[in-house]
Amino acid sequence: QGALRFVAKEDMPRGDSEKPRHFVVELKRINSVFAKSKKQYIEAQMEHANEEATLSKLRAQLASQHSYIHEDIHSLRRRNSELTEELKDLSLQVQECLSETVASLCSDLARLEGANILQGVILS
Questions:
Q1: pTM of the shown model
Q2: What is the DSSP letter of 13?
Q3: What is the pLDDT of residues 78-103, one digit of tens each?
Q4: What's the CA gap between 100 and 87, in Å, rounded?
Q5: Angstrom distance (rounded) from CA 80 to CA 86
Q6: Per its UniProt record, what PANTHER family does this chain match (predicted)?
Q7: What's the gap between Cα 77 and its chain centre?
Q8: Which end of the chain is more exposed for a tag (fewer CB within 10 A), N or C?
Q9: What residues have CB less than 8 Å from 27, skipping those under 6 apart?
Q10: How many CA within 13 A on the CB side of residue 91?
Q11: What are the pLDDT digits (tens) for 64-82?
């Protein structure tokens, strides 16, 4: 208020008809508006800081999840490769079984039928 009264007293000799009281009222109004806007500014800064902290935390969580998913993808690919190889091996074993064992069994069946054992005929 002191500075404002000084300005008001300086303006009076120049023929300014405004009263010093008007300047004091205006200063109080400006101070109250400034205080409100300053408070809003500080609150906005605090909110922004909180949002930045939350965003930072979420980014860290996302990075951690990406890392975990990346590791998981690699382990799944390795396991898929292992299972593919195992499936190839089993497929080869089945093919060998079909080509060797089944052919051998069919040959034995034909020989046994020729020997009349399967027909129940016993030669004495």
A1: 0.41
A2: G
A3: 999 999 999 999 999 999 888 888 88
A4: 20
A5: 10
A6: GOLGIN- RELATED, OS07G0185700 PROTEIN
A7: 21
A8: C
A9: 1, 4
A10: 6
A11: 888 888 888 888 899 999 9
* Contact status, residue 18 vs residue 8, Cβ threshold 8 Å: yes
Burial of 40 (0-12, 13-18, 19+ CB in 10 A): exposed
**Cβ atoms within 10 Å, residue 60:** 10
Instruction: Enter the DSSP assignment of 12.
Output: G
Contact between 20 and 7 (Cβ < 8 Å): no
CB atoms within 10 A of CB 7: 13
CA distance 101 to 99: 6
Look up residue 62 and give its DSSP letter. Answer: H
Give yes or no for residue 44 having a pLDDT over 80.
yes
d(C-alpha 104, C-alpha 55), whole Å = 71
Asked if 22 and 1 count as a contact pair (C-beta separation under 8 A), the reply is no
- Cβ(8)–Cβ(20) under 8 Å? yes
Q: What sign does the dihedral 16-19-21-25 (CA atoms) show? A: negative
